[in-house]
Every structure is written in structure tokens, then in C-alpha cells.
Amino acid sequence: MKSKMILMMGGQGVGKGTHARRLIARDGYGYVETGAILRGLPPESPVAQIMARGELVPDADLFDVIAAELDKSGDVILDGFPRTLGQAQWLVQKYVDKFDIRVIYMDVPEDIMLARIEKRIREGGGRADDADAAIVRRRLDAFWKTTMPAIEWLRNAPGVKFADVDVTNENPDVNFERISAALS
Ligand code: ADP
To answer: What CATH number did the domain enclosing 145 receive?
Structure first.
């Protein structure tokens, strides 16, 4: 039987990590949190400098890292990967035979993304790349320009089950129920 792979997709601040962790606590998936893995690199590395500017790391720097995680995984949730069309096509081509791939697209207007990032800062969970408005702007621009084409491609990719989930509710429990329903 194929293992399950869930791709949590959506812009900055939509709650990908929060809901991923909740699904993991309930269902015991493995977790590939791309941003956290990359933040583990030394601050002087070229990748860390790209991240500090709010730009996307080149696809080629990610494939080995993600493959190493997936090759040891059973059921797994990916958070922050794929973010480009090239990453999405690589992932599906390489893993569609091993995993049953499902996409949860967390659709949220940009004003809500910005409000949630501000809340994250206020509550002390903020990161250096959240605190600088210009860097947040650059990450959001990268989402609309570079990640949306990947999401649109995944919507019709053979062998991929795609769900649009409205997670605009102020109550995270309501949003989580919607994600659960989309996966059931
Ligand atoms: P956010 O989703 O809020 O931007 P992440 O922690 O997921 O935060 O990512 C932080 C940074 O890591 C991104 O701004 C980018 O520089 C880099 N990064 C993470 N995932 C990817 C990816 N799939 N492709 C390229 N760069 C990535």
C-alpha cells in the first residue's frame, strides 16, 4: 500500500505549521518542515543569506534535502515544499508511485495573512524574517508570483488529490475541522 503524503500549501501566516502539527499529534504523520530544516543551516551559508533577504532558495539546493527526508518516511506532511512549479513537478514525478499525494490549499486573502503574521510577532513567536515589513512583502510577492503557479499546476496534476480549504475563520478549531473534513 502507498504511504500518504499531505502537502500543506498557502501563503505566509495562513496556519500551515499550526494545522500540520495538529494533524501529526492526532494521526502520527512524519513532518517535513522545510523552513525549519533550512534555518538549521549555519548563518554564514549562502542559503541562510538568501532566506534572510526573504527570497526563495534555489530548487537545486532543496532536492537532496527533501529526498533524504522522504526516502526514510512513511505517512508524511510537507510544510513549505513545494513552493515553485519546478519543485512541484519534481515531487510528483519522483514520488507519485510511492505516495498517495493530497494537497490542502489553505486559501486566505492577503490582509488576513498580514494580520496573522502581526499576531505571531505580538505573541512572541515571531522570527527575524517576520519582523521586517519589507522582507514580509518580498515573501508574499514570491508566494503570489512563484508559488501560485505551482498550486495551480497541482490542482490538475495526475495522481494528486487537491482540496481548496477556506481557513479564514477566526477560530482555528473551525479551520482545523475543515481541513480534517477535506482529508477524510
Ligand atoms: P514562510 O512560509 O513564512 O515564508 P518558512 O519558514 O516556510 O516561512 O520559510 C522561510 C524561508 O525559507 C523562505 O522565505 C525561503 O527563503 C526558504 N524556503 C522555505 N521553503 C522553501 C522552498 N520550498 N523553496 C525555496 N525556499 C524555501
So the answer is: 3.40.50.300
